[in-house]
Amino acid sequence: MLLTLKAIQFPNHQGESNKLDSGLHYVVGDNNKIINSEKQSSIIFGALNEIDSKNNLPENVKGNNIAGSSNSIKGTNNNVFGSANSIKGDENLAIGNNSDVRANNSVSIGQYSYNERDNTVSFGNKETKRQLTNIGNGTEDYDAVNVKQLNQKAQAAIDSANRYTDGKIIDTKNEAINTSNMYTDNRFNALNNQINQRINQLDNKIDRVEKQTNAGIAGVTAIASIPYSTSENFSFGMGVGHYQNGKAIAAGAQYKIADNANVRVNIAWDNTDNASVGAGLAIGW
Fold first, then answer.
1. How would residue 8 be classed by pLDDT, with cut points 50, 70 and 90?
2. Torsions phi, psi of 159, nearest 5?
3. Which residues form the Trimeric autotransporter adhesin YadA-like stalk domain (predicted)?
4. Contact status, residue 8 vs residue 23, Cβ threshold 8 Å
5. Which among 61, 184, 192, 253 is least surrounded, fewest beta carbons within 10 Å?
6. What element of type H or E holds 19?
7. Do 126 and 13 sit in the same domain of this protein?
């Protein structure tokens, strides 16, 4: 059963039109909703958030925590920081805007990040990839390894192979030396080609991600730069955006559907052949 805060007058809330069940919750904001969490304690700072915990939980189960607006949680012991994020599962963390977690004990970080695997961390989605920079050298079995470490290990392998080959050459006859040199050179060339290929592939991926990211920023800039006329019922505008090597053009239209309401639709095209679309509704009273 849902009770409005105005009806039960909890001392641990500030805001209007919030609907909570009988759990011990702390809410600051308007139009928030908490259901199926009678045995939990949840915290909300923001507006238009919704928490739907599991029924039949034992006593003293941790609740959910939200800081932001328009977030949705279905599960227990989740944490959300940002706006328009969605979590379906338990023990998750979402940081950013429009991120989505559909797993357990997982993390989504960044705009539009998506995660559907348990016990993992996501920094993007299938279309948007992000780099994890300034990583220290790994020291334990399950630490991350940076590119510098990879290059050092590759060079160490080459140096070790050189020392081994040189030692064998000293103890062999001229014919064996020539054969060994030919074999070693071929192996070294193959190894160097493989390393160079991997580095080039990594460079290409980095360049592609950077170009897509810059183009996305340019697209957002173009949409934000569209001017509109507020005195007319219908208004059309265009804008351009540029960020580093990213370029975009955007167009948008605004229509006043009533004296106190209007709708707006925007679309942007960038130099990576991607398009972004946005729509909004404004109501005043």
1. very low
2. -60, -40
3. 131-167
4. no
5. 192
6. strand 19-20
7. yes
Please check the confidence at residue 4 and state whether its pLDDT lies above 50.
Answer: no
pLDDT at residue 74 above 70?
yes
Residue 13 shares a structural domain with residue 126: yes
Identify the DSSP state of 230: S
Report the candidate in 80, 75, 72 with the shortest Cα–Cα distance to residue 50: 72
Tokens of residue 147, six digits: 């590119």
Q: E strand or H helix at 35, and its extent?
A: strand 33-35
Best-predicted range by mean pLDDT (58-62, 89-93, 228-232): 89-93
Q: Which of 123, 272, 249, 148 is nearest to 199 (CA)?
A: 148
Give the chain's radius of gyration (CA, Å). Answer: 28
Strands (DSSP E) contained in 191-274 are 234-243, 246-258, 261-270
Q: Would you say residue 223 lies in a domain?
A: yes
Which among 196, 222, 232 is positioned nearest to 277, based on CA atoms? 222
Residue 172 has pLDDT above 90, yes or no: no
CA distance 22 to 166: 78
| φ/ψ (deg, to 5) at 194 | -65, -45
pTM (two decimals):
0.50
Q: How many domains does the chain have?
A: 2
φ/ψ (deg, to 5) at 14: -145, 125
